[in-house]
Backbone:
């Protein structure tokens, strides 16, 4: 365990992460950032920028070619179980184990995280109510809409309430009320001294929600800092224009 | 250990294909289930049990009590390895749940354990039944040869029951070990295509060993096989006794009632499973990383040179179906290349039987115009034509193969009828050439005249068309679209299994009519041939008229 990370309240730390798919496709190149307790960090970037690849390296799906990822001070490669106990992950694709009912899936995840029944019941009840899923929990997930599956993934992931949340495009498919609830919960979670890291294409969400924003393109970090600092450095431009400038988007092409 | 049980239970709950429970479709599925059990599973078990009984009886006369049973268990184990290889590889490294499961706080060997035990339970049910039948056949022969006393002791019975459940473990554990080792070797080249040929390689190895067992015996036939088993010189048996080393221990426990042998049998299996888990502990995590990081080289393309020509809707739909079939490894091997089984099989059959007196005598009778020989050949061709379509699952997975994106059938601006015809055309295009080739090869060996060759081609077409309509009707009723990987679309798909049963019943029905007409009426063999062709054409017309309506209605009602 890396004690320096814990001492300065860093819950998610990426150090020089690089990833190569196949033999020569470099998806992420020398990516470093950190996320401290109390922060909401947003990943923004165009399709193929490398956001999901970074998240996959943080969550142990991919092993970085170089660098390391620490969650609550635990190296995800060297101490995978301790690291995985410390975060909740919502993948960008909610289509998993669709033959199970919503409740069966939540219980499965809760069993893996060894959440006692007395903690599990009120938390699941609360999360299901907040996301409007109470009446759907005993229905097989194959009968859910995409948005309902996404909500269920969020409920299952958040049932064990770890210090770090890592969410890959969590708003995709959510209805406005569910998106609002999730944003509220992200704020509440960070306010309790935890951290939330999420990727998004929706710049408005990043602008309103994030304490810290990381803009990526071509596997590189183009900007890391607060939204306010970014706006101050580009006077007269809104976030969308700044973002398009940064990724060298040329209108009309 | 709790995590393994939790994962296992989740996989088990997620595995079952949802089928209609109510209404006409529900009743039909119940009936299909009954037909599949009575027409596939039960007959297979009875045939295997009977073969074991006959072989054991013959060898027991020679004072060789166990080699018949051992050779059959080895054959089952070899098949289990060949067919499980790609299944295990996909389940371990490429199932769709992988990226969700690896982020949970589970150790990778727990994930491996749960996947292994679930695959063992899910894939071995038919194997359990076949093994049980073998043991029953063996005991029946032993009782007849030596009497019940000393043959049916408690240890023997216990060993047979344990053997039924435990024997499939060893081949599956070998497949897992091979998968882990090969994945760790292949990670350096980051190319897994090599792996997909392992099943074929294993098949060739086992077939080569099997054929080498006949070396110096003058030909590949049952008599020589039995002689080599009786003399203990059968190479296949000798090598498999080493490879599947626990099987001889089981044989000893069943044959002599040795508790020590039964204990060693269990210990041997446990040791291999432990080695597999230890290797999993060392290598599985690396394999998962490799699987997640696989990718292909990005090619630079010149946008001006891209082929963007307009093709007709029907043609483009067929092209899409064929490309998916050929580029998806599971479909390519199980739906496409499997059709080569018939032409290659008939070449092998005729080549190997050049010196077989029985087959040569049968062909001589046929060439001399002996009617019953012509009838037998007709029945074989009818049966093969029906089974060819059911075996490749092209029509019975036509809708299932769309998977989670089955909605595409609904939202693309293509009439359901066009889509249905395109799917039927693909099944026909892929299957029929192989059948024509088989008929032409048979014609070469048997010496059919051109009209007879054309007749059999027409007969095969009629039988195939009927099978395709039935397959499409069944799959469109309740396609299984929630599969985790393409192998699940085939092996977890009850439609394919039920389709096979229904087609076999139909084949037996048509063969029965041919047989009874020949035996019970004064009609000669040529009129029987014509009658069967006319019957199939009438059945085709009825099937196309009603099947078309059923398939279109099912497509309308799809979700």
Residues:
């Amino acid at each position: 365990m890396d004690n320096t990370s814990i001492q300065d309240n860093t819950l998610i730390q990426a150090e020089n992460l690089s990833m190569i798919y196949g033999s020569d496709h470099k998806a992420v190149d020398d990516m470093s950032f950190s996320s401290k307790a109390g922060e909401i960090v947003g990943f923004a970037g165009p399709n193929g920028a490398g956001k999901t690849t970074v998240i996959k390296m943080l969550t142990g799906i991919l092993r970085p070619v170089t660098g390391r990822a620490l969650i609550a001070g635990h190296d995800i490669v060297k101490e995978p179980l301790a690291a995985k106990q410390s975060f909740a992950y919502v993948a960008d694709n909610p289509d998993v184990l669709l033959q199970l009912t919503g409740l069966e899936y939540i219980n499965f995840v809760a069993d893996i995280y060894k959440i006692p029944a007395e903690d599990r019941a009120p938390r699941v009840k609360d999360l299901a109510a907040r996301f409007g899923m109470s009446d759907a929990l005993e229905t097989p997930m194959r009968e859910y809409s995409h948005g309902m599956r996404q909500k269920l993934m969020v409920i299952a992931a958040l049932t064990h309430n770890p210090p770090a949340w890592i969410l890959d495009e969590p708003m995709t498919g959510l209805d406005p009320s569910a998106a609002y609830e999730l944003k509220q919960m992200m704020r509440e979670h960070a306010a309790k001294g935890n951290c939330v890291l999420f990727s998004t294409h929706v710049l408005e969400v990043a602008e309103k929600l994030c304490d810290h924003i990381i803009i990526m393109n071509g596997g590189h970090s183009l900007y890391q800092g607060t939204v306010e600092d970014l706006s101050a450095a580009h006077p007269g431009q809104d976030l969308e224009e700044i973002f398009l400038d940064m990724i060298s988007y040329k209108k009309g092409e | 250990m709790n995590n393994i049980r939790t994962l296992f239970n989740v996989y088990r709950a997620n595995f079952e294909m949802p089928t209609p429970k109510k209404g006409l479709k529900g009743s039909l599925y119940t009936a299909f289930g009954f037909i599949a059990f009575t027409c596939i599973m039960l007959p297979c078990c009875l045939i295997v049990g009977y073969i074991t009984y006959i072989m054991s009886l013959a060898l027991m006369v020679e004072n060789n009590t166990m080699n018949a049973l051992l050779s059959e268990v080895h054959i089952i184990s070899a098949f289990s390895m060949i067919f499980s290889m790609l299944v295990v590889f996909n389940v371990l490294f490429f199932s769709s749940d992988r990226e969700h499961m690896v982020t949970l706080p589970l150790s990778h060997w727990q994930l491996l354990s749960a996947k292994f035990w679930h695959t063992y339970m899910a894939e071995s049910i038919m194997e359990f039944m076949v093994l049980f039948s073998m043991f029953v056949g063996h005991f029946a022969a032993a009782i007849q040869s030596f009497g019940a006393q000393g043959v049916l002791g408690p240890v023997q019975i216990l060993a047979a029951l344990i053997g039924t459940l435990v024997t499939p473990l060893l081949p599956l554990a070998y497949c897992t070990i091979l998968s882990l080792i090969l994945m760790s070797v292949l990670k350096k080249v980051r190319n897994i295509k090599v792996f997909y040929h392992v099943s074929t390689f294993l098949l060739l190895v086992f077939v080569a060993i099997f054929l080498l067992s006949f070396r110096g015996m003058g030909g590949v036939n049952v008599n020589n096989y039995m002689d080599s088993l009786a003399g203990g010189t059968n190479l296949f048996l000798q090598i498999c006794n080493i490879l599947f080393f626990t099987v001889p221990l089981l044989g000893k426990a069943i044959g002599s009632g040795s508790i020590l042998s039964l204990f060693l049998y269990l210990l041997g299996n446990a040791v291999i499973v432990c080695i597999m888990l230890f290797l999993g502990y060392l290598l599985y995590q690396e394999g998962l990383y490799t699987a997640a990081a696989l990718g292909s080289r990005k090619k630079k393309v010149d946008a001006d040179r891209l082929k963007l020509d307009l093709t007709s809707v029907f043609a483009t739909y067929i092209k899409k179906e064929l490309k998916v079939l050929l580029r998806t490894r599971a479909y390519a091997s199980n739906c496409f290349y499997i059709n080569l089984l018939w032409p290659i099989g008939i070449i092998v059959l005729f080549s190997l039987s050049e010196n077989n007196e029985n087959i040569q005598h049968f062909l001589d009778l046929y060439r001399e115009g002996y009617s019953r020989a012509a009838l037998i050949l007709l029945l074989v061709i009818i049966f093969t034509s029906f089974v060819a379509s059911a075996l490749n699952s092209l029509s019975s997975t036509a809708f299932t193969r769309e998977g989670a994106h089955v909605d595409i059938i609904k939202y693309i601006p293509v009439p359901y009828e066009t889509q249905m015809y395109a799917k039927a055309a693909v099944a026909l295009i892929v299957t029929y050439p192989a059948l024509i080739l088989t008929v032409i090869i048979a014609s070469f060996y048997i010496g059919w005249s051109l009209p007879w060759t054309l007749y059999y081609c027409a007969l095969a077409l009629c039988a195939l068309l009927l099978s395709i309509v039935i397959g499409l009707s069944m799959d469109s009723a309740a396609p299984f679209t929630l599969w985790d990987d393409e192998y699940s679309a085939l092996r977890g798909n009850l439609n394919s299994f039920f389709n096979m049963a229904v087609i076999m019943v139909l084949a037996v029905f048509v063969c029965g009519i041919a047989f009874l007409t020949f035996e019970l009426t004064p009609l000669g063999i040529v009129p029987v041939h014509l009658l069967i062709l006319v019957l199939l054409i009438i059945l085709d017309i009825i099937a196309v008229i009603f099947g078309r309506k059923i398939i279109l209605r099912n497509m309308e009602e799809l979700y």
Observations:
- Residues 170 and 269 of chain B are 6 Å apart (CA to CA).
